[in-house]
Amino acid sequence: MASHLKNQLNLTLYRGFTGSGAYVWSPFVTKLEARLRFAGLPYRVEAGSLGKAPRGKIPYLAIAKADSGLAAPTVLSDTALISQKLVEDGMLEDLNAKLSSTEKAHDLALQALLEDKLYFYQNYERWHENYYTMRGQVLSALPYPMQVLVGLLAYRGVSRTLQGQGTMRYSTEEISSFRKHIWENVNTLLVASKKKAATSAGDEVFWLWGGKGPSEADTTLFGFIATGLVCAAAPETQQVVRSFPAVVDYARRIHNRYFPDYAALE
Question: How many Cβ atoms sit within 10 Å of the Cβ of residue 42?
Fold first, then answer.
């Protein structure tokens, strides 16, 4: 995207959490932030709310032209649809344009594994195994009595979703093994891509498929790794992710290059 076009846009990313300068606990928020930063597209962050979010989903993105005056900004939600719209409008490049049809299928499959499988396994860990830690963080802006009430409603909503989706039809031990198995396979991919890219030294970024630049799956994967490392309501995930040096190194290099203003990933 041309620099003059970037300067004509004001982007506001609503992350669902207050504060700035640090990763939040949503992999989809970090996924979208990575997508914008990989393209060098500046944005500012606000908390926002589910009540104001299109489709009732966090994150969402407001796009306003610098000279639009009082005109209402365009508001988009769903990370995949946001990226698709920004590509169509020439604000972002198509990260997967140079991939073959087979490579695009692999890229989409990896995204689906993380977003449609791992996400629910991790939600179980957060809301069922570490409920009070999760409630305290995501509802920190509310007075404590409201945290208790809203937390209970959130817990019931998550439980209904996990039951319908299928995750809660398994035992806690089985869900844990599913999570670990996914991370083991992610590690296998990153070990291979690191060797293929021959970037074992320094801070040069290596990408998921071993190419010269990121794919859409890199944005998703980084989002899941980063939030896996920072989310205190998922201690088992933290332990598993940290046990794979290639996974941590992949995220650390991306962090150092694209998120130097954020608190370090530990």
Answer: 12
- What is the arrangement of strands in the sheet containing 60-65, beginning at the earlier edge strand? 44-46, 9-14, 60-65, 74-77
Q: Is 205 helix (H, G, I), strand (E, B) or coil?
A: coil
- Residue closest to 77 by CA, chosen among 8, 15, 139: 15
> Is 32:82 a contact under the CB 8 Å cutoff?
yes
Question: Rounded to whole angstroms, how far apart are CA atoms 164 and 172?
Answer: 16
Task: Point out which residues pair with 44 in neighbouring strands.
Answer: 12
Q: What is the pLDDT of residues 82-133, one digit of tens each?
A: 999 999 989 899 999 999 999 999 999 999 999 999 999 999 999 999 999 9
Predicted TM-score (pTM) of this structure: 0.93
Contact between residue 66 and residue 7 where contact means Cβ atoms under 8 Å apart:
yes
| DSSP character string of 50-114 | TTTSGGG-S-EEEEEETT-TTPPPEEEESHHHHHHHHHHTTSS--TTTTS-HHHHHHHHHHHHHI
b/e map 150-165, b = 16+ CB within 10 Å: ebeebeeebbeebeee
